[in-house]
Amino acid sequence: NVAYELLMSERADKASELAWELDKNNTDRRELTEQCVDQAILQVERDQMHNPVLFVFDPEWKTGVVGLIASRIKEKYQKPTIAMAMNKETLTGSGRSVTGFNMIASLQEISEYFEKFGGHPMACGFSLIAADQRTNFQQALISQYTKHTEGLDMTPTLDIDAVVDLEEINWELYDLLEKFEPYGQMNNNPIYLARGVKIVNLQPMGKDKTHLRIGVTHTTNVVRKTIGWSLCETNAEGTNWCHILKPGDTIDMLFEVGINEWNGNRELQMLIVDLKKVS
């Protein structure tokens, strides 16, 4: 294990070599994940856009990335998502759900399809009892979704913790939020709403220019940095914010508070969760 060897290395030259190898492995993994996500998006948009549950599969995918694929597809389309890959003679899968649909409870009701499975209401992992049961499993899970969400409004929503001025986002607040970590299932990152935020500048970012850094002002002339992951990708509603926003526009912005660290420097950064153009 490269990471373990790096931690245990007592020689600087060996540690440097292992650190380079570990970084390359991480880069390769990210690139592989991006390729798989692109393939999954094509599968969804080809013939699943109206499905209540999304299923993506490729015999060439590695089992180690199906969880990342499921998470990315669920976030993009806001629908329960199952990603699967071959694992010897059967299929291994990972699922991510949305509020209102208890995924693990649904799997328990169709347990005859699994060699093994586990998880919690918002995520699962499993191995099918046989690869040729994939279609039957998919139909059974869609039936579970239909049964358990009947009469429910499954429109995606976000819970807002507070309406704030951006000038209230400071290190004192960040230090307070750190005391409530770790965030995750049943302890979500706080989401804040700032209304009437003015855009000063925009800068597409990333290898494919799919992310967007936005400089904004609010109740003062101080420009604050925000970043929105994948805002320059066309989402399920057909929106690409890089084609819509321009300096001078006013937006309402939902965001989380984070840190941007580079070269030993740290600065507060607002991570955009959602936004709406006001004018």
UniProtKB/TrEMBL annotation:
**From what superkingdom does this record's organism come?**
Bacteria
Coiled-coil segments? none
Q: Can you give the residue ranges of the RecJ OB domain?
A: 160-274
Q: Which UniProt keywords apply?
A: Hydrolase
Q: Does the keyword Acetylation apply?
A: no
Output the SUPFAM superfamilies linked to this UniProt entry: DHH phosphoesterases
**Which part of the chain is the DHHA1 domain?**
52-144
- GO MF, one example: nucleic acid binding
Query: What name does UniProt use for this protein?
Result: Single-stranded-DNA-specific exonuclease RecJ
